[in-house]
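User: Can you predict the 3D structure for this chain?
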Amino acid sequence: QVAVVTTPNSAVHPITGLTTVSQIMDTVSGNTSYVITGASAYPAGVSTMSCLAKVPNGTSQWFKLAPHGNNASAWFDVKNGVKGSISPSVAANGFQALGSEIEPVLGQPGWYRCWFTFFDALGGTSEFIYLCNGNAVTTYVGTGNTGMLIASVQIVQGYSPGDIVATTTVPVDSGAPLKS
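Assistant: Here is the predicted structure, written as structure tokens:
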């Protein structure tokens, strides 16, 4: 779990135009790895986790959004702009997967906004983005040179991802967004 690092990148954010994009980069070949994007509480009920993603070197890269750890997840192929599977809901934990979507960011080739809508009976305190080797795959075997750009990770209450709220590392309450 030390094979993936998040580093600042000189890439320009597709919405704000600032250089505030992080790069998830595997640094060691052959390890199973993940990156945690934050730890901010979200309330019980329906929420949507979203992010902007791009594969900078053109290689194929799958990832999954997994709020509240692995209670349920949604997979995305960032190179081809394809939404993948949604893992089964975990009723025993009060978690239900409701849907996912991926759409291109207009005027920004290669950038996609990905989101996952879910119901959590208890609320949560964690948001995860995992690099994966394919659709519905829960492991990642790194190559030592694969990476993905990530920006604007947020969770909002409701069935849609809402507007992107530009923040740094501090959660913002602007009515709907809970984490960015």
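The CA atoms of residues 29 and 144 lie 4 Å apart. The chain has a mean pLDDT of 75.
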